[in-house]
Specification:
This protein is an alpha+beta fold. The chain contains six helices and four strands; from the N terminus they run αββααααββα. 26% of the residues are buried. InterPro entries: CBS_dom, CBS_dom_sf, Diverse_CBS-Domain.
Length: 140
Amino acid sequence: MIRKAPISMIMTENVITLNKTDSLETAEQLFKQHKIRHIPVVSDNVIMGMLSYTDLLRLSFADITNNDDNPADVMVYNMFTIDQVMKRNIVTVSSSNSIKEVAEILASKEFHALPVVDNNSLTGIVTTTDMIKHLLKILN
């Protein structure tokens, strides 16, 4: 039955990740280059936290300009580390969780992405955009 379909059917498997030692400038470049809004922060593929593009926007002028060399952003980014800005103690799901279960989590919480973790290792990410695309497939 479609309600019991695992999230692995729609999750993104090749996840763009960051390390706590990466710079916020690197994070901004990844967000823009890959047109994504959430990046898991990992250490040896173990999830440590989540950085969202919104987290960066709270610190910078990244949304005002497409100029990748904004000196004000670089200065602000140098004041903080990914470790200081990332969300910790995040909710994760397993690749065997159903799409319905994951949709219920996303609908009831204030975040828009969930790391998919199996055996303590990051195996994917699922976002509200993935859910909407899946819903559109079903409705077509």
